């Protein structure tokens, strides 16, 4: 599905391709943020603005037999033949072609130097490599988030800050001088889902409207956990609060979420400074904003379309457009 | 399946029912340790010894339409009509009849006072209530483990100690003067299963023989985790060590297990003293013994049949046999 756009904050006003007014920008680049479970495609103008987009493309795991070329053609059908740049898990071993990670600290130029090139239907495609780093002997990796972070910097005309990209695998990254210095992954979203759907904790849960009190109670409880093992114990409160009627069954899921999100934030903010810029969907950003506030941290929400702005920044630096 | 027995340490030598030697003990009690996924039934003699057993009875979730009476009759078919005592989740809301928890601190007498009675086919059955306690505002519960702990005390002729019952929901209990003073639940086993089977961490894992080095590396890594959130980060090493070929794919599962078991032990041993008595199957006991040793703690393994010894202790105190 192709959507016309409302304006993207910080980018030039967006326009539908095919408009003929004198301010219409010509399409210059196609960028895809192609992850495991979803893909977003952007038609990007000469100033970095998004002219059109596809928001419901299939993630790499949903592309049968790795037929990525055909999936790409379907997503961008009707768009002009332009240079293309792809970020995310499409550059992983399970994707179109493996694009080996660039290593932190990494600026735009380091990512450009590590772009992997492929050809499809006679057109050149650049794959963004993703980043790796190492913290205390533990390797860490990201694919796609680096592009969004560079885009957020681009839009805000900034060259530093702390960026949080919450989700299945939350990423916290520190940026200095336009360079992603290091980052850490927290499996918060995926652990939440596995516990909710595949342990006894889900048995007493009942779906309901988001319960802010239950969430806040979980966040506050996270501050009492002074060790990793304390989490393995406290998780069980999600069941005992239900058994003892100390939380409504519709609040148990939010309590568990607050406990995990709070634990993530407490650890991540030990090592990095305020304020935090959140790159996320509005619902998820709201949840983290609330938790950060409860734990005494300021945050701001990055504009939409950081991915496209990152594609444009990297492609321009690579001389692709 | 009914098994003849080898002797149970600390109990009188076991015999098959129907033996006619002069030392044969008459059956006095039938005890069932009836949990969520499995049931063990014991035919118990006048001295507390196990005369026969069923080890593969169905857990309460596998009994269709809650037909517990019929399932019981099948398990103990051929055994004499005797007083019966049932512990475990059979006394939960999802079991035969809810037996409200006794509250810690609780000695044998408190459990006896809270027994719930039912009748089946003209025979009286006592349901052990399980225990509840509260730690720092968090309620905790157990059903079945209290009976095993009382049995372990009975066999060893002791009235105190620290008991660890590892598993899906590990329990750590402190006992003083024959009284279970308090306990804590750690969801270690269930969290391990959910992460292994239902997150990206399982993708790179390959089954193999237990990898002691991978397990030890996980246990040692757990000592570096200074917060609950650090666990949400370090879990991801189970993937990145695989991606970067720093651990064999057959060791990843053991690394994850070591990380979680180590985190549990580090937290649990903050509040209780050495040595630890482990009540578990040999394989699980071995794993925890190794982890305790790596973390500087002594442990001993409780004899088999603690459950039956607990049934006998409670039933005798209740005047059932």
Average pLDDT confidence of chain A is: 92
User: What is the C-alpha radius of gyration of chain A, as a whole number of Å?
Assistant: 21 Å
Order of helices and strands of chain A: EEEEHEEEHEEEEHEEEHHHHHEHEH
Question: Under CATH, the topology of the largest domain in chain A is which?
Answer: Nucleotidyltransferase, domain 5
Q: Main β-sheet of chain A: number of strands, strand sense, barrel status? A: 7 strands, mixed
Q: Roughly how many Å apart are the termini of chain A? A: 25 Å
Helix count from the secondary structure assignment of chain A: 10
Question: How would you explain this protein's 3D organization?
Answer:
Two copies of one chain form a homodimer. Chain A has 321 residues and is α/β, with parallel strands linked by helices. Chain A folds into two domains: 2-156 and 305-317, 2-Layer Sandwich (Nucleotidyltransferase, domain 5); 188-301, Nucleotidyltransferase, domain 5, CATH 3.30.420.310. Chain A is 33% helix and 25% strand. The first copy, chain A, contains ten helices and 16 strands. Chain A has helices at 68-75, 108-113, 145-156, 188-198, 212-222, 228-234, 237-243, 252-271, 282-294, 306-317, and strands at 2-3, 27-34, 38-45, 50-58, 84-87, 102-103, 106-107, 116-120, 123-127, 131-135, 138-142, 161-165, 170-176, 179-186, 276-278, 299-301. In chain A, the strands form three sheets. In chain A, strands 1-4-3-2-5-9-8 form a seven-stranded mixed sheet, sandwiched between helices. In chain A, β10 (131-135) and β11 (138-142) form a beta hairpin. In chain A, α5 crosses α8 (252-271). Chain A is globular and about 65 Å long. Chain A starts with a strand and ends with a helix. Residues 1-23 of chain A have low confidence and may be disordered.
């Amino acid at each position: 599905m192709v959507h016309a756009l409302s304006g993207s904050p910080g980018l030039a006003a967006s326009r539908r391709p095919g408009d003929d007014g004198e301010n219409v920008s010509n399409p210059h680049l196609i960028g895809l943020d192609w992850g495991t479970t979803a893909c977003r495609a952007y038609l990007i103008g000469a100033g970095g603005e998004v002219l059109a987009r596809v928001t419901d493309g299939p993630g790499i795991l949903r592309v049968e037999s790795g037929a990525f070329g055909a999936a790409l053609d379907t997503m961008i059908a009707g768009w002009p033949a332009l240079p293309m740049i792809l970020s995310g898990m499409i550059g992983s071993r399970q994707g179109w072609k493996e694009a080996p990670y660039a290593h932190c600290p990494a600026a735009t130029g380091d990512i450009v130097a590590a772009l992997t090139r492929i050809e499809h239907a006679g057109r050149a495609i650049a794959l963004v490599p993703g980043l790796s780093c190492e913290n205390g002997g533990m390797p860490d990796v990201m694919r796609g988030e680096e592009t969004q972070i560079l885009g957020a910097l681009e839009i805000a005309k900034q060259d530093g800050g702390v960026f949080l990209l919450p989700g299945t695998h939350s990423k916290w990254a520190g940026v200095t001088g336009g360079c992603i210095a290091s980052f850490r992954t927290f499996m918060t979203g995926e652990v939440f889902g596995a516990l909710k759907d595949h342990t006894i904790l889900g048995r007493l849960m009942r779906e309901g409207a988001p319960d802010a009190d239950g969430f806040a109670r979980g966040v506050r409880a996270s501050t009492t956990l002074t060790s990793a093992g304390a989490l393995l114990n406290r998780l069980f409160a999600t069941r005992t609060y239900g058994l003892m009627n100390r939380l409504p069954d519709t609040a148990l899921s939010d309590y568990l979420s607050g406990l995990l999100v709070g634990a993530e934030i407490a650890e991540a903010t030990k090592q990095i400074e305020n304020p935090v810029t959140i790159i996320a969907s509005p619902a998820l950003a709201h949840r983290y904003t609330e938790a950060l506030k409860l734990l005494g941290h300021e945050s701001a929400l990055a504009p939409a379309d950081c991915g496209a702005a990152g594609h444009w920044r990297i492609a321009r630096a690579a001389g692709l457009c």
